[in-house]
Specification:
- By secondary structure, the chain is an alpha+beta fold.
- It has a single domain, classed as DD-peptidase/beta-lactamase superfamily (Beta-lactamase), CATH 3.40.710.10.
- 36% of the residues lie in helices and 16% in strands.
- A six-stranded antiparallel sheet has the order 1-10-11-12-2-3, with helices on both faces.
- A hairpin with a 7-residue loop joins strand 2 and strand 3.
- 47% of the residues are buried.
């Protein structure tokens, strides 16, 4: 076997989405997302399952947009002192990172730090933010009424087909009546609502769910208010439509919403399907990538209600609210009491190297790790409110642990800049009346 063949055989290239679950736990009646009811019952001890940290227990009404009264706010110029503090945390590998931190704890006086903010790379599953944006843009364009959009999300049933092929990551399928939970990958024929597919894509970051949602975003663009078409019509459309026309429809579905919402396609784009079969069915339009600065713009506009509209921005934030397993950046123990809104994605690859053992998130050819994180701490009180967008390619290090450690250090920096007020001192007791 040649050296090139050996390297190819040893090469491990994996798009690894984040595990975890999102959306507030009390929202099953409004959304029909069955996984939420399972998580709620487990946390309350009614059925077996994991309990949630304090930061994951906000009710739906408290998971809301924080900058509706600051609609004109744009990213401020980087603060040199703050940027120096953040860059120092990166150590000797600073040249392998792109990072942006926006401290909104005092929203009238925001602080911004940025290091290599225009450095771009494939951000893996963080690109699902674009899929989410495309879905909500298509919903708004077809159904201006919020009630109609909610109806479409809750009542439209998607049946998994070849566009879901293939993904080893599991989703949670919960039978509310029998209270039976199944964890497995999506299979052909699996039926769930548009709302549930959104939860599956964002929370356990299922690529299969993303493939189905990308298919349906294109169908929304093509069929308008006649969406959803029949299964027979869906098969006919993708089989008989020329590939060139499908690619043009892909551009209208996934690139146009970015430009309409103020993003530069040279800095942020999802240019192909997130499943292998999806790429075969619909040719893409080049490379996918993002920068720390473009992701920060996404987070800021979402908080301002500027992504599509206020309803869409709020729904996207709720879909990003981590209400179960926390990993990578969100895994930091210092964030346990914080509400975390999070998306993560990685891509790593290895070749044979003497003295080096390849492992998850520890590539020696590429080792991309990407984190999109909004932090409100403590949850509900929100004394600290900040966003972190982190892109890295540090070879031979476990980048998941790297991002977790950075999360703790950044949190301590933000906390030090906004110390908690001292507890109120007890009032002195009233003087005792003199005895007669």
């Amino acid at each position: 076997m040649t050296q090139r063949a050996t390297i190819a055989l040893l090469c491990l290239t994996v798009l690894l989405p984040a595990a975890g679950s999102a959306y507030p736990l009390d929202a099953y009646p409004e959304t029909g997302i069955r996984r939420l009811e399972e998580s709620r019952l487990a946390h309350e001890g009614v059925i077996k399952g994991s309990k949630q940290p304090a930061g994951a227990l906000l009710p739906t009404k408290d998971v809301d947009l924080r900058l509706l009264d600051h609609p004109q706010l744009e990213l401020p110029a980087p603060d040199p002192a703050f940027t120096k503090q953040i860059t120092r945390l990166l150590g000797g590998n600073a040249s392998r990172y792109g990072i942006a931190v926006l401290d909104l704890s005092d929203p009238d006086h925001p602080r911004y730090a940025e290091h290599r903010g225009d450095y771009k790379q494939n951000v893996g599953s963080v690109g699902k933010l674009v899929v989410m944006l495309a879905i909500f843009q298509a919903l708004a364009d077809n159904w201006p009424s919020v009630d109609d959009r909610l109806r479409v999300m809750k009542e439209t049933v998607i049946t998994a087909d070849g566009f879901s092929h293939t993904d080893h990551h599991t989703v949670r399928i919960f039978d509310v009546e029998s209270r039976k939970l199944i964890r497995r990958s999506i299979k052909d024929g699996d039926r769930a609502t548009l709302y549930e597919y959104l939860d599956w894509m964002v929370s356990p970051s299922s690529n299969s769910a993303a493939g189905m949602l990308m298919r349906d975003a294109m169908l929304m663009r093509q069929y308008g208010t006649s969406y959803p078409p029949s299964e027979e019509e869906i098969r006919r459309f993708f089989k008989e439509t020329p590939k060139k026309e499908l690619t043009a429809l892909f551009e209208r579905t996934f690139l146009e919403p970015l430009t309409r919402n103020g993003f530069d396609l040279e800095q942020f784009r999802q240019a192909s399907f997130l499943t292998h079969q999806g790429k075969i069915n619909v040719p893409g339009v080049g490379n996918s990538y993002a920068t720390a600065r473009s992701l920060m713009q996404f987070g800021l506009r979402m908080e301002q209600g500027r992504l599509v509209d206020e309803f869409s921005s709020r729904e996207m934030k709720r879909l990003l609210y981590v209400t179960e397993r926390r990993i990578r950046y969100a895994w930091s123990p210092l964030l346990r009491d914080s509400a975390v809104y999070f998306k993560s994605g990685s891509l790593y690859s290895c070749k044979k190297e003497e003295g080096f053992s390849c492992g998850k998130y520890k590539g020696n050819v590429k080792n991309y790790m990407n984190s999109f994180a909004l932090i409100e701490s403590p949850a509900g009180e929100r004394r600290l409110d900040y966003m972190v967008m982190l892109i890295s390619n540090v070879l031979r290090k476990n980048s998941a642990n790297d991002h977790q450690l950075l999360a703790g250090e950044i949190h301590k920096l933000i906390d030090a800049a906004h110390p908690a007020p001292p507890p109120p001192t007890a009032a002195p007791p009233p003087p005792t009346a003199a005895a007669p």
